[in-house]
UniProtKB/TrEMBL annotation:
Function text: Forms part of the polypeptide exit tunnel.
UniProt-recorded name of the protein: Large ribosomal subunit protein uL4
Naturally occurring in which organism (per UniProt): Cyclobacterium xiamenense
InterPro entries to which the protein is assigned, alphabetical: Ribosomal_uL4, Ribosomal_uL4-like, Ribosomal_uL4_dom_sf
A GO cellular component annotation in the UniProt record: ribosome
Gene3D superfamilies with a match to the protein in the record: 3.40.1370.10
GO terms assigned for molecular function: rRNA binding; structural constituent of ribosome
Amino acid sequence: MELAILKQTGEDTGRKITLSEDIFALEPNDHAIYLDVKQYLANKRQGTHKSKERAEISGSTKKIKKQKGTGGARAGSIKSPVFRGGGRVFGPKPRDYSFKLNKKLKQVARKSALSYKAKENGLLVLEDPVFDAPRTKDYISLLTNLSLLGKKTLLVVAENNKNLYLSSRNLQKTKVRMVDELNTYELLDADSLVLCEGAVSKLETLLSK
């Protein structure tokens, strides 16, 4: 699979790059994607939800009325869940929602997500961008040149590029990630995936292990 390499100006460099078919053209595994995305979202949950049960609320434990002869049901405590202001029955408690997935399954999920992007023509390869200083308007110009302004964009770099990251930070629909930080959720969430030229070989090496 070959793709043209684009300049920062959006023009074709005249060069092409060959992408590995084992990563960008395999048959996607939807169940692996589902599990990886589920784990990503579960790991983001704080799990700090909490409601008070009858033993935890303040209130008298005095028997509020006699046992018999009232014509109503028995009532032993004002903190009973059946009364307004009483405790909650089986309310939520703090818990950890994270769970484990095998590395090979997560690798299959990322390959599947990349294959979907390639199949949907949502993949671009960009010559490694050079930003002399962090300027948001320069990043906006880059997106405009690539006809991606206003779209959800994920730009993947080979190594940390502080100027590029700071230039994109104030824009809502765009993210800059290093190859090591890629996850299936963000790959699928982006309308367009932009791979920097230097990131391609590093990505293929990482997913071939």
